[in-house]
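Predict the 3D structure for this chain.
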Amino acid sequence: QATGEVHMLNWVKWLLLGALSIGFGAFVLANPVAGSVAVTLLAGVLFLVSGAFQTVVGLYEPGLGAKLLGVGLGILMGLIGVSLVFHPLEGMISLALVVTLLIATTGVIRLILSFRMRATPFFWSMLISGALSILLAGYIAANFFDVAPALLGILVGIEMLFNGAGL
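Done. Predicted structure below.
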């Protein structure tokens, strides 16, 4: 019977976590610009922490070239983090541009892969997926300054809703 109680507690825990994720996802979608700023600040803090660790690890690399590369990469990551933390609105636009380029790139890759999969049942789904990604990137690029401030928040909000539904 104790095993059943533990199983029940795990189930309730996952349900509460899913409901919390859905709630926060809805909150972020209701405030996508604030969500974008939060994502930018979080990315900045993570770059700062990663840059500090990379710099320390780089100091212990054997060989001058590896040491310089490791420390240089750490300093670069730290500078990106400082920029994102102290200039979140500009960072938000930069990250939105990177996301738009990633969406376009994955769309092109899916289109190329779809033609290599012509003989498989996955051809049409891959072709449509690639075309939709390219169209989405084109829409974002055409309306960039209207869409960019909310883009990261919208994407995070949708991810949180899907994550919550999955949990």
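Residues 30 and 109 are 32 Å apart (CA to CA).
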